[in-house]
Amino acid sequence: MNIVLLYPEIHVNTGNIGRTCVLTNTKLHLIKPLGFSLDAKEVRRAGLDYWKDVQLHVWESFEHFFQENIEGKDNVKLYFATTKTKQKYTDVKYGENDYIMFGPESRGIPEDILNKYKEDNITIPMLPLGRSLNLSNSAAIILYEALRQNGFKF
Asked: Which CATH class is domain 2-149?
């Protein structure tokens, strides 16, 4: 599996997601610009001593990431986590090599991307009392559903 963070802003979330990725043998893709330095001790601290084991890929742009990982490949799919859809994350069938993308904490995935790939947008159901769940919690929820569907093949 693959977790993709588009323009991540908060180092603690990225560190926590990195730790989850290590413990589930999941690749972590970060798409620039980043709201922090990867050398920052805060990122390493959030991921604790796991950060050195993260299968980390850093991309200069969404387009570069998409061309290298998704475009023209029939065996992978990219899902876009958003609050702006009705399709639940449990309504789709994840493949072992699929990608799940999350947007920046303050604004989510840009509308133009969501609109272009509307059928691949997924959401976590929640009460409308706030904007969304915490990014690292959302990533863990959806990742574990994808892993469950694939028999927890780490």
From this structure: alpha beta
